[in-house]
Amino acid sequence: MKKIIAVLIALTLCAACALAEAPDELKRVPDFNIRTIDDETFALSDLLEEKDAVLLNVFATWCPPCQLEFPLLEAAFEEYGDRLGMVAVSVEPKDTDDVLDAFRKHFGLNFHLANEADVGVLDFLVAPPIPVTLLIGKDGTVYYSQVGAFATGSQLNATIDRVLADDYDGSRFTFYGVYCYDQNGYGVPGVTVAFCTDTQCVPVESDEEGMIFFYGGTEDYHLQLLKAPEGYALVEDYEPEAVVGSYALIPLVYTEE
What we know:
It is a single chain. The protein has 5 helices and 14 strands. The chain is of the alpha+beta class. The chain folds into 2 domains: 169 residues, Glutaredoxin; 80 residues, Immunoglobulins (Immunoglobulin-like), CATH 2.60.40.10. The strands form 4 sheets. Strands 5-4-3-6-7 form a 5-stranded mixed sheet, with helices on both faces. The chain has a 4-stranded mixed sheet with strand order 11-8-14-13, covered by helices on one side. Strands 10-9-12 form a 3-stranded antiparallel sheet, with no helix packed on it. β4, α4 and β5 form a beta-alpha-beta unit. The longest helix has 17 residues.
């Protein structure tokens, strides 16, 4: 569990450093051509004719958070590939077709890989942080942008489920995550927090692994700890903060009675 905390801290810091360059203002992407490392050529619009949405991941093979994320992307592709197109584009010039093919074999990937020189995502993503993921709808609308790696398969799948849901209205949304853990590094279930705007609060409870995922609108949210499970207390003077696209960490202390 301590390794989980370390990973979440690393991903949080990575995302926080990149927020100034995040594509959170990108509302729509233009149609663009893609040449994959298998020498397949198609347009984004072609893929969107076949699928309900497209996941576009921007990465580099040397990027550690990217490497942690790829098994999650592959698992999601296996589950949602019939409805979700997936393309990962490297922005590292040294990631040639041969390098990307070796990367694909190492991680056992089955979705499209390409190099930026054969795609041109930098035409609409200026100096993007890596990794960054866009979920794109039929008309090129960016439904969701993730700065930094998805930390868990549950978060990634919940995001895709939201976009592919029959009642999804296409409105842009944001993600907040919380990891609640004790002094021994173990996740704490049953922690209740509230994500609040100026007008309303939405209570959410941590799952069996101590994780909380919250998807809201584009308003600013702040985080409140409502209730810790019996036998736990919040670390003194700690004030959790909600950060869009990233994780808040809530340390709790277990007190034996």
